[in-house]
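Support request, please re-run this one:
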Amino acid sequence: MNNPRNGTALNHRGTKATCVSKSWKSLIADNFFIKKHLKRTQNDPEFSKKRVLINIADIAPRTQPGSTIKSCSLTLKSIFEDPNVNTTEIEYPSKNESHSDWIVGSCNGLVCITIRENTVLLLNPTLRVSKRLPDIGFKKRRGYTVYGFGFDASVDDYKVVGVFCYPGIVKVYSLRANCWRRIQDFPFEVFSNEAGKHVDGTLNWAVFSGQDGDFSIVSLDLAQETYKEVTQPCYGDRVDERTLGVLDGYLCVLCSYRKLYAEVWVMKEYGKRESWTKLVSIPYLPYERSEMFLTPVSVSKSGEILLRYGVNILLYNPKKNMFRIPMFPYDVISYISQAEVYEESLVSPTAVNQHR
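Re-run finished. Output below.
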């Protein structure tokens, strides 16, 4: 044990390990490597690097009124291929201090979360790194705030948009500048708890428009900071509910027809009305028509679609006209309030040099 050669060898190995560790840290912090890794992840046809972040509200016993939020992560591949799904709980600052944690959206591996509406976090669940944004500065008054999160490729910057309703005051946060600034007010009334959907450098909201409060879609271009109404497909008659979402990178709308069936429409080329395509028609479960189909989450290579249904998530196979429910290891009676797909990436919300 006291042999100098052994001591030298141990020191040498220790030094080598330190050098490898420093080299690895330098590599994964390199902007070119981060973008190359992200592109490979996004192009993975097996969904092995894509995960679903879900908000699970655990209903407490009567002796403990209220509920708590669990943010759990699971691989998209396991949902489609394994009937029993294991979840990994996600930790972040201020978690469970309130019952109002809300997933705003995800982009390139970063997830935006709000806590008590005015506290905003950017989180990379893969790196377990988070950043709390400066206070948005909306004074306490009647109304509510909705958010959107996306990427502005023109300046290589991640942006969070906050819309205070009413009267439609809008502020944009830049990760590069690390500050909020006010832009042109929002021109319509946004649905409450409706986060902006990020597609091709735009954020899209479902809004009320016209005297009758019709369902419309309004987009904010993150580069130009201009608003535009997005044309919709011809849904036909008897539509009683519509929800806006993003399905595998495409803007989508789920339409419910008198709770008899629902249709999923996707915009194959953003901004082109003629590119709207009806992806699938889904029958309602005859014994649970009190529940509503909500936004779809993802589609497998075989065409099986994952979507939220009431307080759960389920899979529908249009070829077999068959439903199945993934089995989660719940410890208590729970319901799923949100489901958001994100990619495993090396993009850090705290590394400013990555965004220049």
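The CA atoms of residues 227 and 246 lie 19 Å apart. Residues 1-18, 60-68 have pLDDT under 50 and may be disordered.
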